[in-house]
């Protein structure tokens, strides 16, 4: 799954956050993904963060 209109996988956002990076750092590295998209994804799928962190 990628952010709409981009080639940025949503999993990359989870990897950044799991590594302790901020949302701002992710957005700086992947400017094609918007803050609104990232926040919407995180609000809709909070279990995605827990599942990824448990790996």
Verbal overview:
The chain has one domain. The radius of gyration is 10 Å and the shape is globular. α1 packs across α4. It is mostly helical and 55 residues long. It contains 4 helices and no strands.
Could you say how many structural domains there are in total? Answer: 1
Strand content: under 5%
Overall spatial form:
globular
The computed structural class is mainly alpha
Round the mean pLDDT to the nearest integer and report it: 87
Helix residue percentage: 55-70%
Quick summary of this structure?
With 55 residues, the protein is an all-alpha fold. It has one domain.
What are the main properties of this structure?
about 55 residues; mainly alpha; about 0% strand; globular
Protein topology:
Elements (H helix, E strand, L loop, with lengths): L9 H9 L4 H7 L5 H10 L1 H8 L2
Helix pairs in contact: 1-4
């Amino acid at each position: 799954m990628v952010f709409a209109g981009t080639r940025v996988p949503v999993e990359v956002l989870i990897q950044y956050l799991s590594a302790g990076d901020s949302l701002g750092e992710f957005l700086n590295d992947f400017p094609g993904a918007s803050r609104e998209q990232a926040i919407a994804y995180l609000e809709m799928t909070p279990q995605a963060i827990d599942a990824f962190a448990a790996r």
